[in-house]
Known about the structure:
Protein name: Bifunctional diguanylate cyclase/phosphodiesterase
CATH architecture of the largest domain: Alpha-Beta Barrel
Radius of gyration: 42 Å
GO molecular function: cyclic-guanylate-specific phosphodiesterase activity
CATH superfamily of the largest domain: EAL domain
CATH topology of the largest domain: TIM Barrel
Oligomer: single chain
Number of domains: 3
Shape: flat
Domain GGDEF: 373-511
Largest sheet: 8 strands, mixed, barrel
Domain EAL: 520-776
Number of helices: 25
Helix content: 40-55%
Keywords: Membrane, Transmembrane, Transmembrane helix
Strand content: 15-25%
Number of strands: 24
Amino acid sequence: MWSVLRRSISLRVRITLGMAGFGIATGAFMSAVIDRQLEKELEPAARGRLQAIAGEVAAVLDQNLHRHAQELALLSTMMVSDSPSDLPSRAQLRKLVDLFRSHQPACAWIGVADPAGRVVAASSGMLEGVDVSKRPWHAAGLRSTHVSDPHAALLLARLLPAAPDGDAPRFVDIAMPLRDSQGTTTGVLAMHLYWHWLDSLVTEAADRHKSTPVEIRILDRSGKDLAAGNGAPSPQRLAVDTEEPGWLSDRVVLGVSEETTALGWSVLVRQRRSDVLAPLDRQRHSMMLLAPVLSLLFAAGTWIIAGRLVRPVLRLAERARQHAGAPVAEGESETQLMDRALLRLAQTDRLTGVANNTHLSEQLAALTPQPEGWAALVLINIDDFSIFNSSQGRANGDRLLCALAQQISSLARPGDLVARTGGGEFTVLLRGLGHDAPAAIDVALDLALRIDSASRTSLAPEAGSEPIGLSRGVLVFQPGSATADEMLKNVEIAAREAKRQGGARAVVFSADLKARFDSAIQLERELRLAIEHGGLSLVLHYQPQIDRDGHCLGAETLVRWNHPEHGMIAPARFIPLAEETGLIVPLGSWVLESACRQLASWAAQPEMRHLVLAVNVSAHELALPDYPDRVANLISRTGADPRRLKLELTETVLASDLDGLVQRMIRLRSLGVGLSMDDFGTGFSSLNYLSRLPIDQLKIDQSFTRELVRAGHAASIVRTIVALGQGLGLSVIAEGVETESQRSALIELGCSLFQGYLLGRPMPLDAFERQVRAHQALTPP
């Protein structure tokens, strides 16, 4: 007893010391990582704030300068004369400028000077008759609109009250030429604004950001102070070091309008780096205070937890023996018991209790030719199990698996091995089936049939749904004739074929079935290589889309695979393969990029630049959350006009997440891309869905076009679709137009866009371009 207690205390101490050391080292490391990450994040965030503030202040200053210039320009239009001699009288001019100045609180003086520089009229009569030809604003104002840097106007300052601080007033001049109706310069209209107007704007901007310890300055073109806010020193007209160490700063040059002489003013917003990193310093201080407390708490918690862990360790061997399900062998140690329990766990599926895939593979590999002869594998796959899980919930899915595992085990023979080999998949290994292969097949098929029959009556009530469909693959083999992996692969081929034929059936593996499967795998591999190598063997064909007047408005792009050995492979053969294997996504990306490059090429050709290309988009592609970003990147990279690109979506996309789909479609529309609903009327669409989808076009399925002349119901459906499109503001195009009678009937029903063999088969690029050019030469669109 004392020995056990001593080992318990020793283990507890070692665990506590080890975990405490690990905790302290981990905490120090994490603290250093967090410090470094915060430092990386704080500076960019601060620079972003400085940039936003600088942009805001620059925009306010620019708007005010532009407004004053516009107001002065409005006054100048009131002084337009037919000739210099017809300039309004001094009294009239003074009346105008006095009236204008009375509505301008920031305005100190407004005056009109003749071309020689003599002030002919001014607000309150100030400076009338004074020669201002030497003033910069007069010379510049004769040429164009001029805005000056702040300065002290000595003549004007003597006529105005002194500033509250006793300093001489400072002004900003705005001047512009006065011209008669013939464009001859008749004088200069000038306005002097008190400097405090601009100073107050900066102060207001600074007050809006007083919660952020930043310094706001207005600099002239030479980098000297003009104004400052938020606690910055009063401007001393001193040069400011915009790259001063210890500061983060951002500088924005005023975007003064093109009519106004560029000032070169800029807004400088900066913040001390120490203020930016203050939160990091506070966190470090807090961590230094908390570290000893946390270390003690961690050590105490580890001591308590270790105490609870040590005691179960002493009883682990007994639990292992119980879990192993067999009596302890003589001389078997606790370690051997634990090894046996772990081995059982490694060989058993935890959910259903039957063997797992690993144990099945081991048993297959261990088979050798025996007197019993043939063996068999029966693979049972639950049809649409993922859909069942999604609709019924994972708990019901687990109950279904457990019930099916129990049922298969009850129907299997005593020596058979039942294993769960996939999410909704079980495999039974049957051994000792004799030396007659047909009889062995009958035994395996009989088991497959009994499992299917039992599932239809017993599993549906358990799942609370319709009877469960089981696709079953059967493989009969002689032990030692193939590897375990080959046998499992072959029985899976048979099950996949059963699923491909519609499910809920059994298929026996054969050499022909494997040959077809290998051919499909080879075709998939070659298609993958064709896509990965830039589509060297993939080509686009173009089927024209024509309006009722015969003008070609664009084309639908259709991918073709020119296989180097087998020649042109039909899309009906490789498109379903691409969708089944997931290759439809890179294939669709290649088609879209090729179409975008073609649009960019046509943009430089006047006779082709009006064409719109329609590209089919699969449900797999549109289900990708980043699909709009992929399209945007392709458009940007190729330089295609998005308004000439149209994506055709089938109604099967509506079977997925509708809200997410609508958001992605809105994003695509915002790029300028058009959206068309292909094969309309054959799928999931309803008025509720259609009203939520941001589409531009409905495409009538060719099945309705084909029956249009023969069946009256087809005409009613087409008329309804056309009316629906018109009511929703959508264009409507009909595909599969093969006869002139179909085209005429569509026109009578209100459809004005067509596509089909009557108007042009899918053709290579050069043939399509020749057809468009030849047709336009006769009837230009």
